[in-house]
Amino acid sequence: MTIVASNLIWGVGPKTIVRDVSLSVCGGETLGLIGPNGSGKSSLLRLLSGLKRPRSGRVEINGRDVARVSRRNLAREVAFVQQNAATDTNVSVRDVVRLGRTPHRSALGGWSSADEAAVSAALAQVDMHGRRAQAWQTLSGGERQRVHIARALAQSPTILFLDEPTNHLDIHHQIEILRMVRDLDVTSIVALHDLNLAAMFCDRIVVMQEGALVACGPPAAVLNQALLRQVFRIEAEVIELSGSGRPHIRFCSL
Ligand SMILES: Nc1ncnc2c1ncn2[C@@H]1O[C@H](COP(=O)(O)OP(=O)(O)OP(=O)(O)O)[C@@H](O)[C@H]1O
């Protein structure tokens, strides 16, 4: 196991936002997090990655309690692609991705060939190597998203958290990014709104509703008509995706 979360509770003031969530994520697994708006996906990602401290409960990453690991050491293992992340505007694409190397560099150490190789590989993985000298502020929304993913990859994490990474991306790049995440030799936890993409690319899916985990398992075991009605308030037909064993959702028009 690389992430074990036990009885996580978090909230703001009197409001409880994450309600007693426990889950385990295995090494190399791609875990999808789905749920309606405001169901607690981003909050849970932040708790699991150590960015937020729970009110109660605990998270272990690679066997260590995240509350006891320094930010720098955590950043050597964990990368987070935030929703709508911002970046200083007066920089190039390559500068943004180079920031991903920060946790691996010492105060006196120079920029190494390993750093350069990690940055180049990360840019190539998101199809942005040819744009490395372009100014950040001139990128489209989807290109910025891909560069933020490259920055996370340049961090060489063992665990990657992605909060709606396909936002702003055209369908080609949505599929490319999720295929890449699935094929990476890292553990990934990814919040997604597109249920069919989650079904295609995730090993397991966690379903959140009003801060609680209401289902967890392989896509075919979790995505069914009753759950879609109860959690997402939609009518849909769930079929098998052409012999793959994976479900595909056909939304019914009203
Ligand atoms: N710091 C905060 N202060 C007050 N309320 C918060 C805070 N952070 C989150 N919330 C509330 O907690 C709930 C869950 O938010 P969260 O962003 O985790 O949901 P989500 O499932 O990621 O939503 P979405 O799909 O819309 O991105 C929302 O109602 C949100 O308004």
From TrEMBL:
InterPro entries from the UniProt entry: AAA+_ATPase, ABC_transporter-like_ATP-bd, P-loop_NTPase
CDD domains noted in UniProt: ABC_Iron-Siderophores_B12_Hemin (cd03214)
The keyword Translocase belongs to this UniProt entry's keyword annotation: no
Any one Pfam family match given in the protein's UniProt record, by short name: ABC_tran
Kinase among keywords: no
Database matches in SUPFAM superfamilies: P-loop containing nucleoside triphosphate hydrolases
Alphabetic keyword roster: ATP-binding, Nucleotide-binding
Domain (ABC transporter): residue spans on this chain: 3-235
Top-level taxon of the source organism: Bacteria
PANTHER family: ABC TRANSPORTER ATP-BINDING PROTEIN, HEMIN IMPORT ATP-BINDING PROTEIN HMUV
Name recorded for this polypeptide: ABC transporter ATP-binding protein
Source organism per UniProt: Fulvimarina uroteuthidis
Lineage, highest ranks first: Bacteria, Pseudomonadati, Pseudomonadota, Alphaproteobacteria, Hyphomicrobiales
